[in-house]
Amino acid sequence: MEKNRRGNSEVRIDSRTGVQEIPEPEQNRRPPLFKVYKRRWFVLLVLCLSSCCNAMIWLTFAPVATQTSQYLGVSLEEVNWFSVVFMVVAIPLTLGATWMMDSLGLRITLILGSWLGAVGALVRVCGTLAGEGVTLRYAVVMLGQTLGALGQPFILFAPTKLAALWFPDRQRATANMIASMCNLLGMLLSSLVSPWVVTAPAKIPTLLIVYAVPACISCFLATVGIWSSTPPTPPSAGAVSSSSEPFFQGIKLLLKNKAYLVLLLSGGAAMATFSAFNTLLDQVLCVQGYTSDFAGLCVALFILFGVLGAAALSFYVDRTKRFTEVVKVSLLLTALALIAFSLVSQLQQQRAAVAVVCSLLGLFGNSAYPVAMELCVECSYPVGEATSTGIIVMSGQVQGVLYVVLLQALTTRITEAPLSTCQGEDLSWGVSMLVLAGLFCLFACCFVVFFHTPYRRVEAEEEDASSSSPLLADHPLGPPGGPGPQAYLEKRLIEPLG
């Protein structure tokens, strides 16, 4: 091979064939089509820490409601509002948070969410450190809770967005699972840490300092460590077209998508069921003689087995892409477990049976959440990930409020309950639990029968891969003249959704 110069270009001449080869100029060489970066794990770590801290802020006072009531000088109902405010604030904030995430980017929303959590945690500390005679103590702590609640949507809607932008298709479900389950981990930690720290009402300020430290650390890591919303080179074809639709146009597409509407109702109902389960479990069990410590153990088992099941399902789905089948089977098994709980929870001295059923509820129900969120993105592509999943979360929160109100209205007062450990009046929850199981079974059957969808994001990526020749697969927009992901999007936007 001989080398000559032609102008500013180097010319290579094959000595055997005499063919001249002019290498492509350096500035015209194409970057890799898709590439993953180790930094994706750091971004995931920041989201996990922020999500865990936000959940701990949410449920800080629930395990120590009595001590909090005594320290702040308020009723238990007022203490319950520390948790309820998260649900109330999140409902109207959902659309704004999803718009910001899909329009302004992941970096801004993650930093904003972590800052709101950290500032809220510090405000709570200031409130509890006030003097004994300060009447605004409860209001200051509630202000801190509200700031944390404002940050929740920016954290809660981020897993699918981060998985789509930073992780390749073979790791998306796993990344989504890790980020989503960290919220459950925060709930579990709060149920363990709060009773361990608060041995007396005077320990409430110490508890809030303990929770403020990790919140400030996550805020620092997000502010300093997250430099951009996306990596320099996308990890997949789906990431190239993430949030390609304007926000309001995306909303219109979702309302025309029959599969998404079925998932909106059924998935929201499933989330509402578990919200009601976590909220009312202690009240359901105490009338049968079970202690609050045992109810806390059941919640811990519910979360722990959910995390283990989610890990297994996410690894499986990453390799098989069987989103629909996994979610349908999980919902049917959850329906059976919920029916069992509605019966077992009304029996006395059946601790082992109640614990096993709660574990199965977590294993079948909680484990399906990250897979369902990935399925939501697949059926709604190319609508932004935060928009499609955020609206389903909002549906679950709205239905959750309705479920709690309905189930409480269906209770009846019990005149004699000799084994009761309830601090308030004794109520029978038998009818309420049967209604809850019936509603879940209804929506689960509707999902199994009526939900059918192509995996739009997977199809777009496969179509892009098949259109790229091996020699020209190094370009972020696909080969010259090839359709690429944009052609797929244009095709999909022309086709009716359903």
From TrEMBL:
Sorted UniProt keywords: Membrane, Transmembrane, Transmembrane helix
Domain Major facilitator superfamily (MFS) profile, residue spans: 43-456
GO-annotated cellular components: membrane
GO molecular function: transmembrane transporter activity
Record's signal peptide: none
TM annotation in the entry: 41-61, 81-101, 108-130, 136-157, 204-227, 259-281, 293-317, 329-347, 353-377, 429-451
Listed Basic and acidic residues bias regions: 1-15
Name this polypeptide is given: Solute carrier family 49 member 3
Source organism of this protein record: Takifugu rubripes
Lineage of source species: Eukaryota, Metazoa, Chordata, Craniata, Vertebrata
Designated gene of the protein: slc49a3
